[in-house]
Specification:
Helix content of chain B is about 50%, strand content about 10%. Chain B is α+β, with helices and mostly antiparallel strands. In chain B, the strands form three sheets. A three-stranded antiparallel β-sheet of chain B has the order 1-2-3. In chain B, strands 6-7-8 form a three-stranded antiparallel β-sheet. Chain B has a two-stranded antiparallel ribbon with strand order 4-5. In chain D, about 20% of the residues lie in helices and about 25% in strands. Chain D has three helices and six strands. The chains are: A mainly alpha, B alpha+beta, C alpha+beta, D alpha/beta.
Chain lengths: ~350, ~375, ~150, ~150
């Protein structure tokens, strides 16, 4: 069976054979860049469509059903509309920051793609501090949001940006601790190592209850980090109209929109990697036959399946729950999630030291 | 605008919430002074949809002016019309046939249900849950369909005429109402599952927007807003009109006075409305649906006041007649106007998100406030 | 501590309940209530008030005597009736309808004109698709060209 | 308290005949004292002001206050007359908070000044509006509906 890893290896081999080293690297970089941007665009379209359909079914309606078969081209039509719209810059806005902010957000989202393992051996850059890199870069997007809120010269935007700042800074903590609790088990920050350590079972099963708790906390924390409902205070449309992107229109708005969905994809991919084994098929201990059957399902399918399942869960949250208030949001983090995740980390350390996870 | 507000202390920010804002449900304009996220002051600016209905009515005959009142509180348009019809009947001393009385009450309660359903969805949307809105509209549409079949319109029915109702009930009315009741009863539990017991929703509502009993009376808060603070103010109980006097239903009272109490009062009122409809739907007396009235109505010289209970509270119609075919002066006492006046008092010291929740539970309808 | 834990579990329980409900609707598509309106035409009940029309029979005759009762009953000045004098076979002059002008853009569908009409000449139609490109198209002439009053309607 | 008993109790007022509820007319000067009295006297306790109406009688203005008590459920209607050229009525917004908005409304539409009102500004009309729309002699300079 031809796997993605074989294809990439073949291309790599061919490039280095025909071109000098630096040119091959350059060509590869260009290919990766184009692939990443394409992935972004496709992800945006698919996820927005998915969100609209999920919300529609939960709200007992049909959702988009006009453009294309079953409405699948609706988001494409919307993107075209946004692309043709005038990108307004309000008077009194800090023009430079205002125009820069959406790109900061989208680039921050793009950077995190680097260490994600999409399939077996299919990874842009398997750097040795992969998961640390993800936590570090993912908090960069808040700078873009703050820039957008400040530069818009709009009080709603400013309030939204401030909320977003407070929110991301506090939820980074429990997200980080949840990540650490898996890193304790694997002993490596490298994504490929983390995936490989789940060869004989995913961490969510192997890690007993502490892994489950840290998984739940991680999902909650990343929902908050990506400003999704019920933690969408930064854009809370019933309070702040549209929060930090109130003044944005046209393509710049589309970039924020896209970044939101790409961020969801990324955090779900990370969660899938950490807890659900990434591209690793469902393996149970030493059941060789069962594991072998599972291996027939391509690894990329495993990865996408798990990621989309988590994305669906996060969408499910959004279409079920009311929004929290800003002080309740911070209470939830500092009074509930952080203490629980710290105790959980201790338990996890105990499990790791005693080696109970195998 | 901001300069006129004048002094703001250091660190305070003045925000215009509305007239175009997702959670003001129309064109309410609030000027809020905040310090950080905490509200220091809320100042409503009204009049964006002021049509001076009172002035318009001065040039309309007693048959004509009723339809305009549908456009005030459009969610309980039928009850508004009812108040006006009652006032004219009081002046003309028209005896309304029993069948018409029952039809009116049935329609009132259906309207109240529809209004509360919309409120439930809209309020859940204000606190950030979008799905309940569609679920609420599903049930509301069922009521609207029933209304449409009998009254001929979905929202501004104009079904009341002085002396009765405009047309008899549709033959399928009772059957369809019963079908709806079965459907809605099963959905009420879903409402509780989805919103009432939800921990996020509860924490958003409990202890927010407290209004004491004294203040509720002083601010003239009626309807669910007043009753959540423990003020007994249900016009159907205090001054029963039509057949309300002989119906068995409870006035829902809560004493907490916060947003959650207001929420619970409305939810319980929906169940009371269902029980009222239950009592009446099989007992619609036969007979005329309209009393015989003259083609041109002339109210005797004098003053007439009628009070009815809309979905938002006490609605009063005050007609001063000089004996002509048009009122000399007409005044509508709208519940939303008084309820809104307590907003500043309730919102101070809370967060912006709470202001939205408080407005949601006040169930403001802006044309009702502006008139 | 016990309360803290029960709080946490109670909270998660209530959230899961809500998710169960939305999950139910997500998986049960037969609950969907969307009406695909322009594709599937909606049948409105016969009492629905969409616009005022004047009924004409096969002989192109209507029942309007031009008494202006509807014009007087209308709160908005929606109806304007222009009358003319017909000469009856006996040579007498008789007031009759010339043009029945109806301003749909001013109409609130309150049904008062239909109620007021002594000869049931006008009624409410169920058409609700009123959008046009120009406002002047909303001003309509309700009596058909060449129509006349039905025999025996006074 | 029944309407008759109420008439008896407030015998210093002159009541109109043939009204549904006891209706008394007082001058603007007496109104403030009466308001304090009916609000705070035991047995009366009119704590709920449910309607404030301005009326233009062409010769003078009246402000009609509909009062009720949440404890005793009796209703009293007080009409306060004001001069047409310079209408001034004392405010009761400190006695019944709801009057704050209602009086602003009456001021906005009739131009009746409520002395002592904390925030007497236009409510529905814009701040630069000329004239008082609900007065009988008001003429709308812009007629919206011209056919």
């Amino acid at each position: 069976m031809i796997s993605l890893a074989d294809i990439t290896a073949a291309i790599n081999h061919w490039l280095y054979a025909t071109l000098p080293g630096w040119a091959a690297l350059l060509v590869e970089a260009v290919i990766v860049g184009i692939a990443a941007i394409t992935l972004f665009a496709v992800l945006g379209l698919v996820l927005v469509f998915m969100e609209r359909k999920v919300s529609a079914y939960m709200q007992v309606r049909l959702g988009p059903n006009r453009v294309g078969p079953g409405g699948t081209l609706q988001t494409l039509a919307d993107t075209l509309k946004l692309a043709m719209k005038e990108g307004l810059t309000p008077d009194g806005a800090d023009k430079f920051l205002f125009n820069l902010a959406p790109y900061v957000v989208i680039i921050a989202a793009m950077l995190i793609l680097a260490p994600i393992a999409f399939a077996k051996g299919f990874q842009i850059w398997d750097l040795n501090i992969g998961i640390l890199y993800v936590s570090a870069v993912s908090s960069l997007s808040v700078i873009g949001i703050l820039m957008a809120g400040w530069a818009s010269n709009n009080k709603y935007s400013l309030l939204g940006a401030m909320r977003s700042g407070a929110q991301i800074v506090s939820y980074e903590l429990s997200a980080g601790i949840s990540v650490v609790s898996i890193v304790i088990l694997t002993g490596s920050l490298r994504i490929s190592d983390i995936v490989a350590s789940q060869q004989d079972g995913w961490w969510i099963f192997k890690g007993h209850i502490p892994a489950l708790i840290s998984f739940v906390i991680f999902i909650i924390a990343v929902t908050a980090e990506t400003n999704r409902a019920p933690f969408d205070l930064a854009e809370a449309e019933s309070e702040l109209t549209a929060g930090f992107h109130t003044e944005y229109s046209g393509m710049k708005f589309a970039l924020f929109f896209l970044a939101e969905y790409v961020n969801i994809f990324i955090v779900c991919a990370i969660a899938a990697t950490l807890y659900l084994g990434g591209w690793m098929p469902l393996h149970i201990g030493h059941w060789a036959a069962f594991n072998h059957v599972m291996d027939y399902i391509p690894s990329s399918l495993w990865f996408w399946g798990k990621t989309f399942f988590l994305i669906f869960v996060i969408m499910w949250f959004r279409w079920t729950f009311p929004r929290l208030r800003i002080d309740q949001l911070l209470n939830l983090e500092w009074k509930y999630l952080l203490p629980i995740s710290m105790v959980n980390l201790l338990l996890m350390a105990l499990i790791a030291v005693e080696g109970w996870y195998l | 605008m901001i300069e006129e507000i004048g002094t703001t202390e250091a660190g305070e920010l003045v925000i215009n919430m509305g007239p175009q804002h997702p959670s003001t449900h129309g064109v309410l304009h609030l000027i809020i002074t905040i310090s950080g996220e905490t509200i220091k002051k809320v100042e409503p600016h009204l009049g964006y949809i002021h049509r001076s209905i009172e002035k318009m009515c001065e040039s309309l005959s007693y048959r004509q002016f009723i339809y305009v009142t549908s456009r005030m509180d459009y969610l309980s348009s039928h009850i508004n019309n009812h108040g006006c019809a009652l006032c004219v009947e009081k002046g003309m001393q028209i005896e309304v046939p029993p069948r018409a009385q029952v039809i009116r009450v049935l329609m009132d309660e259906l309207t109240r249900l529809a209004s509360h359903q919309l409120w439930w969805g809209a309020m859940a949307m204000d606190v950030g849950a979008l799905t309940p809105f569609f679920h609420a509209f599903r049930e509301r549409e069922a009521i609207n369909d029933i209304m449409e079949e009998t009254c001929g319109a979905r929202l501004t029915m104009n079904y009341m005429v002085p002396g009765g109702v405009m047309a008899d009930l549709h033959p399928r009315f009772a059957e369809r109402v019963k079908e709806f009741m079965r459907f809605f009863r099963s959905k009420m539990d879903e409402y509780d599952e989805l919103v009432t017991n939800n921990v996020i929703f509860k924490s958003r509502m409990q202890g927010v927007g407290y209004l004491s009993r004294e203040n509720a009376i002083s601010y003239g808060c009626t309807g669910p807003t007043g009753r959540a603070s423990g003020v007994s103010c249900d016009m159907r109980k205090i001054a029963p009109y039509e057949v309300y006097g002989r119906l068995a239903f409870n006035e829902i009272l809560q004493t907490e006075g916060d947003c959650y109490a207001r929420y619970l009062v409305r939810m319980a009122e929906m169940r009371q409305s269902l029980s009222i409809i239950d009592q009446l739907i099989d007992n619609i007396p036969e007979g005329d649906f309209q009393a015989k009235t003259k083609a041109v109505l002339k109210l005797p010289k004098g003053e007439f006041y009628s009070r009815v209970e809309t979905a938002r509270g006490e609605f009063g119609v005050y007609i001063i007649s000089e004996g002509g075919t048009t009122p000399y002066r007409i005044k509508f006492r709208s519940p939303g106007f008084s309820n809104l006046s307590a907003l500043d008092h309730m919102a101070r010291g809370h967060k912006i998100g709470d202001l939205v929740a408080i407005m949601g539970t006040l169930d403001l309808v802006i044309p009702d406030i502006d008139r | 501590m016990k309360k803290y834990l029960s709080d946490v579990f109670g909270a998660i329980g209530s959230l899961l309940k809500g998710m169960k409900l939305t999950g139910y609707y997500f998986t049960h598509h037969k609950e969907i209530i969307t009406q695909e309106y322009p594709d599937k035409k909606i049948k409105l009940p016969e009492r629905f008030r969409g616009e005022v029309v004047m009924t004409h029979d096969e002989q192109n005759e209507h029942a309007c005597t031009g008494c202006t009762a509807c014009e007087l009953a209308c709160p908005n000045g929606t109806i304007k009736i222009i009358t003319k004098f017909d000469v009856t076979p006996e040579g007498k002059k008789k007031k009759a309808l010339d043009t029945f002008i109806y301003h749909l853009e001013l109409c609130t569908m309150c049904n008062l004109c239909v109620e007021a009409c002594p000869t049931d000449a006008i009624k409410m139609a169920q058409n609700f698709e009123h959008s046009v490109y120009d406002r002047s198209q909303l001003t309509k002439k309700l009596n058909n060209p060449g129509s006349k009053i039905r025999e025996g309607v006074e | 308290m029944s309407p008759e008993a109420l008439r008896e109790r407030l015998s210093n007022l002159t009541f109109e005949q043939g009204t549904e509820w006891p209706t008394a007319t007082v001058t603007a000067l007496d109104w403030r004292a009466l308001a304090e009295e009916v609000r705070h006297t035991d047995g009366l306790e009119f704590d709920y002001l449910f309607c404030v109406t301005g009326v233009d009688w062409k010769t003078h203005f009246t402000v009609v206050y509909h009062l009720t008590s949440t404890a005793h459920r009796h209703i009293l209607v007080v009409k306060v007359s004001a001069d047409r050229s310079e209408p001034v009525v004392p405010t009761v917004s400190d006695i019944w908070r709801t009057a704050e908005f209602h009086e602003r409304e009456v001021y906005d539409l009739f131009g009746i000044v409520f002395r002592g009102h904390p925030d007497l500004r236009r409510l529905f009309m814009t701040d630069d509006w000329n004239g008082w729309p609900l007065r009988k002699d008001y003429e709308d300079p812009v007629n919206m509906i011209k056919l």
